[in-house]
Amino acid sequence: MTIPLVEFDRVVLGYGTRSVMDEVSFQVPKGDFLGFVGPNGSGKTTIIRSLLGTLVPLSGVITRAPDLRFGYVPQRDHVDSLYPLTVDDVVIMGRYDRIPIGRRPGPADRKAAQVALEQVGIPDLARRPLASLSGGQKQRALIARALVGDPNLLVLDEPTNGMDLVSTTQILGLVRDLHDDRGLTVIMVSHALNEVANYVRRIGLVFGGHLRLGTVPDIINEAVLTEVYGLPVEVNSFDGHRVVLARSRHLGDDHV
Amino acid sequence: MFEAVLLFREALYGALVIGIACAVLGVYVVLRRIVFVGAALAQLSSAGIGLALWLAGLGLFGSTHAHTIGMSLVITLAGALFFGVGGGRRYLHHEATIGVTYSVAAAMGILLVAKAVTGEAHDLFLQGNILGITRGDTLVLLAVAVPVLILHAVVAKEFLFVSFDPETAQTLGYRVVRWNLLLYLTIGLVIAFAMQFAGVLLVFNFLVVPAVTGLLLARTYWGVFGCSICAAALAATIGFVISVPLDLPTGPAIVAVSGLLALAAWLVRRARGE
After folding, report:
1. What's the pLDDT at A245?
2. A110-139 tens-digit pLDDT
3. Cα–Cα distance measured from residue A241 to residue B208, given in angstroms and rounded to the nearest whole number
4. Which end of chain A is more exposed for a tag (fewer CB within 10 A), N or C?
5. Which residue in the set A53, A83, A99 is minimally distant from B31, CB to CB?
6. Residue A256 reports pLDDT greater than 80
7. Which of A242, A237, A238, A122 is nearest to A170 (CA)?
8. How far apart are the first and last CA of chain A?
9. Looking at A158-196, which runs of residues are DSSP E strands?
């Protein structure tokens, strides 16, 4: 039996003494492509922080595989544009933990950074200042930084937040390719249900301190979504893509 | 003019040591947007000096320079520890805590010196007396600054990572709180010693303005440090050279030159069209 990369066993999450998430239990097996979806402030980031080990659970057990290595892609606007760093400088940070204290990145690190930039499709931007990049390019640079450390679990926090339709499609396509082609296990957090529903294999709906997790057909259906969101929800399919449509209680007032 | 400068050359060397050390640390202070932590630590240092003088006046504490440095160091490092671990964040915004510390420490420094037996004479400690630096003082400053700068050179990439993206650094196993603590302690250490000779205004200037000049001029991260060091050294030298023959207060003259260099850097940046 394959050991999961991460396992949550009756984990209660919160800050101080305040509980944010009820008892949460799930596994992340190798090769999974899991999306956590929910409204802003629902607790998605809290789950991710505990998964990454930056938030200690209030109770329960989180088990991580011994060979687990995260590649973390933070929200793009968390990256400070005041620092005069090139794309190359930022990507190499993903290997800093392998470089002893007192040593600088060497040719092997620079080569690895170049390979990572090629994987995300921006090898020619290596010497450009990070601050000068567009939102989509910056996101690719951050994904390259996560990849350069050769992770077996890629975690992305709101990777398409604030992006236009083209950039959103390109970034989600890139993440799907990394999963399909490299067999990389991927966890993605987003508030955009329609975006996530068409890319991931499993979805964790986070709402009101609860988590409901299952395969895409298990979760993205009218019965579940209507129950969770408390609104009549329609799930349609166009050209193989799921489109979730929430109807407000006023007739004719639709939201995608 | 040259003879006057030569007469106070030890003071110039001391100012250069303070300026260069603060210019390196100042890059982190400015990039991490903790400019007022620097100001608050400088005021805590002055409160430490005031406390030492007041206790000495009561006969409860030694009155040598080493005693004032010791007390200032203890108070400043306690402040650095407090800010380094994010003290007070549970109840207040970080900036509010810094503001309270800054104003209360500044007032305490003034009140304690006012009530010290030789208070008026010791006002100089709070304002700084850069011209009074001796060779011995410069050696003391070097003994503090050189190890701090070596440490910063050794752990430069770690300080960069935990400053730029602490969240990601933590996921790669960096103990961010400990690194922050180390950074704050080095800042507190340099401030505590620099304050004995340069005063709040000059130390705060060296912590902020050369780094701003560096950020405006340099195109690379490591270039910021180089430009910041050059700006501090230039400001210290020019400010010193013009203040002695013109009988200007040296500290404010250095600050004024720092400001002019920052202005020039801003104009260069604009001219580049960036």
Report:
1. 82
2. 999 999 999 999 999 999 999 999 888 999
3. 54
4. N
5. A83
6. no
7. A122
8. 41
9. 185-190
Which pair of tokens denotes residue A71?
């590649």
Chain A positions in Cβ-Cβ contact with residue B160 (cut-off 8 Å): 93
CATH 1.10.3470.10 for the B2-272 domain, yes or no: yes
**DSSP conformation class of A37:** E
The better pLDDT of the pair B36, A247 is held by B36
Of the candidates B95, B23, B183, B30, the residue with the CA atom closest to the CA atom of residue A82: B30
Q: What are B32-51's pLDDT values in tens digits? A: 998 888 889 888 988 898 88
The pLDDT mean for chain A works out to: 88
- Shortest distance, CA A142 to any CA of chain B (angstroms): 10
Of the candidates B154, B158, B168, the beta carbon closest to that of A72 is on B168
CA distance B27 to chain A (A): 10
B164 touches chain A (CB under 8 A): yes
Q: Options 2.60.120.10, 3.10.105.10, 3.30.280.10, 3.40.50.300; which CATH number does A1-68+181-216 get?
A: 3.40.50.300
pLDDT in tens, A185-209: 999 998 888 888 888 999 999 988 8
Q: How many other C-beta atoms lie within 10 A of the C-beta of residue B247?
A: 7
Instruction: Give the span between the Cα atoms of B62 and B221, in whole angstroms.
Output: 45
Nearest chain B residue to A89 by CA distance is B221
| B64 vs B122: CA distance, rounded Å | 12
> How do residues A220-241 score in pLDDT, each as one tens digit?
888 888 887 778 888 887 777 7
List strand residue ranges (DSSP E) for B35-163, in order. Answer: none
* CA B210/CA B212 separation, integer angstroms: 5
User: Positive or negative, the Cα torsion across B208, B210, B214, B217?
Assistant: positive
Closest C-alpha to B171, from A181, A155, A194, A26: A155
The two tokens of residue A70 are 């995260």
In chain A, domain spans: 1-68+181-216, 221-256
Sheet containing A6-15, strands listed edge to edge, beginning at the edge strand earlier in sequence: A18-28, A6-15, A59-64
Nearest to A29 by CA among A169, A215, A198, A153: A153
Residue with tokens 């005041």: A82
Q: Give the bridge partners for A15, in sequence order.
A: A18
Q: How far apart are the CA of B164 and the nearest CA of chain A, in angstroms?
A: 7
Task: Report pLDDT for B268.
Answer: 96
Q: Answer whether B168 sits within 8 Å of A93, measured CB to CB.
A: yes
Q: CA of B158, closest CA in chain A: separation in Å?
A: 8
Q: Do A52 and B224 touch (CB under 8 A)?
A: no
Pick from B169, B163, B167, B190: nearest CA to B34: B163
Report the run of H or E that residue A26 belongs to, with start and end. strand A18-28
DSSP A125: G
